[in-house]
Write a structure and sequence with these properties.
The protein has one domain. The chain has eight helices and 15 strands. Keywords: Signal.
């Protein structure tokens, strides 16, 4: 029996290592360096105009045999645009797993007795155990993050924090630290959500963080809350860098403000997703399929800019009002990925810049703030897509 258990554990170790390597294509991070604080935004990436020559390490290919050029993936029909992963029909949108509707898994997964199931998952090497994505064999581990991911290719390297496509990587909203991971509304932490989005344990106590075994020690991670919009704004600087909100309406031309404090020196990724767009999923999928066969150029008739979505812009300042970073792209999904110091008090403004010209639903957005934790801080990536903090 003991031999059989050992064999099963070795098999799990091998499978976990393989999965960690595979997952790191989508959810991995970046090495550190001693350079000054900087940021990457949709605006700074758009300003490259497809020219990756300034980026180091060099970006020549995506994967062997890819018929597309690396620069093609900067186009609005690519993964950084509203047609892509961080657009309204992506996994962060209203049709994804996070929501307050009856079809949303997050509505049910934090229901009655879920904490008991979560503990059982932990006992059997579940997502919150050291065998999960937050443990030493996961995509945020030293090996997966610093070695496996860069070895997969030029594009994969740029999924690290500070990379050209860093918002798509593991320290962004699609990664293990974001709303889709084990710390979020569909996660295996086991805490119930109140109507405000606060996590509470079985005794009714508020929980803001969770400990995960990591080798011979543990790591503490901020839980990723799905807050009611008004509650998040009322928290002020008492909020942390791991939360999302959904706002049904913001008047065109007006601004909503959110404040939060970074407990650690880290990268903070911010992205806004319009709730609605011109096309249904089937129509959008058809345009994406056509674009994939034409170097991700806009297909004939495909809408862009305000003809496709409402335009929400982002501005990040410190608590004195000094502007740190902005994102105001018309065709890429607005994002900011910025290096901040421990104790930084940050103020984020979401401005409804322009109402979409299409017919249909309007005016709502989802906002995501994802901290990289103190385990991912700097980057060895440089290039014109990065700007010094305070330069807009």
């Amino acid at each position: 029996m003991r031999t059989a258990n050992a064999s099963r554990r070795r098999t799990r170790m091998v499978l976990t290592a393989v999965l960690a390597a595979a997952m790191s294509v989508v959810t991995a991070a970046a090495p550190a360096h001693a350079g000054g604080a900087g940021y990457v935004s949709a605006t700074s990436v758009e300003a490259l105009h497809g020219d990756l020559s300034s980026v180091s390490p060099a970006v020549r290919t995506t994967y062997p045999g890819d018929p597309l050029l690396a620069a093609d993936y900067l186009k609005p029909m690519g993964p950084l645009g509203h047609y892509g992963l961080i657009g309204p029909w992506g996994p962060l949108g209203v049709a994804g797993p996070i929501g307050n509707d009856v079809w949303s898994p997050s509505t049910w997964i934090t229901g009655t007795c879920w904490d008991d199931w979560a503990r059982m998952l932990g006992w059997y090497d579940g997502p919150m155990s050291e065998w999960g994505p937050l443990g030493p064999n996961g995509p945020l581990s030293q090996q997966a993050y610093h070695e496996t991911l860069p070895s997969l290719g030029d594009f994969s390297k740029q999924l690290q924090a500070g990379g050209v496509w860093g918002v798509l990587g593991p320290v962004g909203p699609l990664g293990a630290l974001g709303p889709l991971g084990p710390l979020g509304p569909v996660g295996a932490h086991g805490f119930r959500r109140t109507s405000d989005g606060v996590y509470v344990d079985s005794g009714g106590g508020t929980r803001r963080a969770a400990d995960v075994p990591y080798g011979s020690s543990t790591r503490r991670y901020e839980l990723f809350e799905f807050y009611r919009d008004g509650y998040a704004r009322d928290l002020g600087y008492g909020n942390d860098t791991s939360f999302m909100v959904e706002r049904d309406y913001l008047a065109p031309g007006s601004t909503a403000e959110y404040r939060f404090t970074s407990a650690n020196t880290q990268w903070v990724t911010i992205n806004v997703v319009p709730m609605w767009m011109r096309y249904d999923l089937a129509t959008l999928s058809g345009y994406v399929a056509t674009a994939a066969g034409n170097r991700l150029n806009y297909p004939s008739g495909a809408a862009r800019g305000s003809a496709l979505v409402d335009d929400f812009d982002l501005q990040l300042t410190d608590d004195t009002g000094r502007v740190l970073a902005t994102s105001n792209s018309a065709e890429l999904a607005d994002t900011i990925q910025v290096q901040v110091a421990a104790g930084a008090r940050l103020k984020l403004r979401v401005t409804y810049y322009q109402r979409g010209s299409y017919f249909g639903y309007h005016d709502g957005y989802r906002l995501f703030v994802t901290g990289s934790t103190p385990y991912v801080t700097g980057t060895d990536i440089t290039g014109a897509h990065q700007r010094p903090v305070g330069t807009v």
